[in-house]
Amino acid sequence: MNYFDRFAIPHPSPAIYAAMVAIGLTVIAVIGGLTYFKKWGYLWREWLTTVDHKRIGIMYLISALLMLFRGGVDALMMRAQTAVPENALLDAQHYNEVFTTHGVVMIIFMAMPFIFALMNFVVPLQIGARDVAFPRLNALSFWTFFMGAMLFNISFVVGGSPDAGWTSYFPLAGNDFSQSVGTNYYMIAIQIAGIGTLISGINFIVTILKMRAPGMTLMKMPMFTWTAFITNVIVVFAFPVLTVTLLLGTMDRLFGANIFTTTNGGMDMLWANLFWVWGHPEVYILILPAFGIYSEIFSTFSRRNLYGYKSMVASIVIISFFSFLVWTHHFFTMGQGPLTNSIFSITTMAIAIPTGIKIFNWLLTMWKGKIKFTVPMLYAIGFIPIFTIGGVTGVMLGMASADYQYHNTMFLVAHFHYTIIPGVVFAMLAGLTYWWPKMFGFMLNERIGKWAFWFIAISFNVTFFPMFFTGLDGQARRMYTYSEATGFGPLNLLSFVGALGLAIGFALIVYNVYYSTRYASRNISSDPWDARSLEWATHSPVPTYNFAITPQVNSVETFWDYKKKDHPLFKGKIEKIHMPNNSGVPFIIGCIFFVWGFSLVFSMWIPAIITTIAIFACLAHRSFEKDDGHYISIEEIEDTEKELRGASK
């Protein structure tokens, strides 16, 4: 096959050509900048080869913010296309590609890395650990995720984007209906990224179970660590299902296995079941860490300990259990019968009970508290009423008979966004602002942050609340256009205005980062929020070894007790600290995975075989490598502590 025929875009447009030019210019600018400022060595030593959980967390964060921009552009294009009847901004094919990539990018490549960014940075600090249990495996987790994300994102300029929806249902995702390589990108890129997520899940479970500071029992862990622990338990149970499902889908597309086809013994509904066996727990993989973030923020800025700690832990465990028992509510209308629908309708509504417990606990935490309305607290307070609307409409969708009216309409789109945006995006922005001084040693500007919050909170409701009405009136989702006679035009135009407001809000966040980086004071304390958990007991920014002396934990809020009740926290003397060495192997394996995935997408079997051998060669290299790490001397620790203590006063 001719080179250009193999890699050509099947449905080119001026926008795609402009994107190609923009990508090329960006790559040239990055390479030129690194060369001009002589930063290649720094980039390799400090970032590409790092195994430090804090730097890996920051790289996850940068990736998530880039994908937030990418997915946000898709969202704006969709709202612009449906803003007026019979719009011709996008044709049907491009609209299919846009809503497919929007869903995948936002769920898999934005929300997931945002969560793992905060877990990577915060969890080892909250439990008083030096690092995660397997630092090099942690680096491999990031690089496989990152290369999977990059592989997926080149699809719209090399070979064409997937167009079968973010759920990629068969037979639409089969070769008969999706003939370009776009769905191959979907299957293989998510598979590569999913490997990284599964590795992270195992790593964090071991870290939390085995590396807690002396005295920190499970029931003395901070709530964010609890939610991270349960989240990663869900990851370990759910992601193997996704791995197998994507493998079977890849076999269908590349080898004609007829597993999900409607002929030759295939079963297309098998894909729907397997996808949502992973997909609904995935919702709680996103939501539970957000609940942990809100718990930390409500407690800190209400100046009260978290109300109902044990009930909060119990509700998290119950939610994780029920998350695996509700998957069929995603296809009530697909013919599984009234008995099955009734069972899954009951489990769907039952999962609202432990979620409601958490909301009442947060409200009671604020009750009689001395509330301080910081930017993180505004996001946390704003979350409660908006998420409640999402929860109530979720119960409506959970009624199987009523779902025949709501299913596949804009009502469902509104419900989903009323849970995910306040439940994940608000939480990520709150957590980012809250832990920013710990990450970078300065605070984001509060005034700009509050402007951004109000733009986002108000514009979100302007964008998505009208969809409840258009959905109830019959507007189907995934429709790229509609006639003026439907009457959907005014409310869709209002949604587009709200989307523009959201764009302004996120632009303000970008400006806040720029402004604060230039002008914010670096002379802040290690505990600028007067917080309660252990990560605030070390310096800002955090030294490589996290804590010069391992903390001794006596209660759920040991750091608060240390500050307010003079309970001892650091006992003993400074000793040399053992730390892992950096390694370039995880980055190299990630690059090989990228080439491997690209080869499979285009059925280039010789490069695929070579890269498969190379991956196993790298694993074998690690098996035989002798790397005992290194020690940080007492003198170096004392010098670092002296320098950071002076900077944080």
From TrEMBL:
CDD domains: Ubiquinol_Oxidase_I. It catalyses: 4 Fe(II)-[cytochrome c] + O2 + 8 H(+)(in) = 4 Fe(III)-[cytochrome c] + 2 H2O + 4 H(+)(out); 2 a quinol + O2 = 2 a quinone + 2 H2O. InterPro entries: Cyt_c_oxase-like_su1_dom, Cyt_c_oxase-like_su1_sf, Cyt_C_Oxase_1, Cyt_c_Oxase_su1_BS, QoxB. It is a multi-pass membrane protein. Gene3D superfamilies: Cytochrome c oxidase-like, subunit I domain. Pfam families: COX1. Binds a copper B center. Heme A3. Keywords: Cell membrane, Copper, Electron transport, Heme, Hydrogen ion transport, Ion transport, Iron, Membrane, Metal-binding, Oxidoreductase, Respiratory chain, Translocase, Transmembrane, Transmembrane helix, Transport. Its main location: membrane. Residues 38-554 form the Cytochrome oxidase subunit I profile domain. One of its GO terms (cellular component) is plasma membrane. The keyword Cell membrane applies. Pathway: Energy metabolism; oxidative phosphorylation. It is found in: Cell membrane. The chain crosses the membrane at residues 15-37, 58-78, 98-125, 137-158, 185-209, 229-250, 270-294, 306-327, 339-364, 376-396, 416-436, 448-469, 489-514, 579-598. It comes from the Bacteria. GO terms for molecular function: copper ion binding; cytochrome-c oxidase activity; heme binding; oxidoreductase activity, acting on diphenols and related substances as donors, oxygen as acceptor. SUPFAM superfamilies: Cytochrome c oxidase subunit I-like. Its EC number is 1.10.3.-. Its cofactor is Cu cation; ferriheme a. PANTHER family: CYTOCHROME BO(3) UBIQUINOL OXIDASE SUBUNIT 1, CYTOCHROME C OXIDASE SUBUNIT 1. Belongs to the heme-copper respiratory oxidase family. Catalyzes quinol oxidation with the concomitant reduction of oxygen to water. This is Quinol oxidase subunit 1. The lineage of its organism: Bacteria, Bacillati, Bacillota, Bacilli, Bacillales. The gene is qoxB.
